[in-house]
Design brief:
Elements (H helix, E strand, L loop, with lengths): L17 E2 L3 E5 L5 H8 L2 H4 L9 H11 L3 E6 L2 E11 L15 E8 L8 H16 L4 E7 L3 H9 L3 E12 L3 E11 H7 L7
Parallel strand pairs: 5-6
Antiparallel strand pairs: 1-2, 2-3, 3-4, 4-5, 6-8, 7-8
Amino acid sequence: MTESPGPRPSFRELGWPRSTERLRILPATPEHSAAHWEFWRLPEVGTWLGWAPRDRADWDETYPEKSPDFLTVEHGGRVIGTLMLHVEDGWAQREIAEQAVGVHAEIGWVFHPDAAGRGLATEAVMDLLDFCFSELGLRRVQAGAFAANEPSVRLMERIGMRRESYSVKESLHRDLGWLDGVMYAILAEEWRARTPGGSGC
């Protein structure tokens, strides 16, 4: 029988911060709350979020619960984005379930509108994928979105994720009613083939 790989470390326990060509990325802390709020509060940002804060009190109450899965993205010393990383178990049959513990992740992202058009989100999410596969040793990463959220869909395709599902009117939007949803994913071997000999950033 194949041995269990053993418990994986929390992503927060690994080496931080990470640096790309233009960005600094590190786990979100309570001290980052106000900086994240500055763009999460914007209506144009909240349009496609599953959870958008109603007001500052709602943000302050909920941030401590959500921030353990948050990474802070800085550019030029300013917080411009939030990456979300939630490590989870893969599905497995009972006899081998221990081999599927903590091998997958779901990711997401929220960026200040000022950061658009410069490839900063792409740079950040590419580094997040590299971290997932190179540092955490995950086997699969996925991300979902409303199909009408064109910027996120384009980003998922740009970084090499593959569309695995298109669901018709399965996601309820607070303003637009029932909308189509998409799910994208990438496997570790696909990432390595896409970024041979390097981090891919």
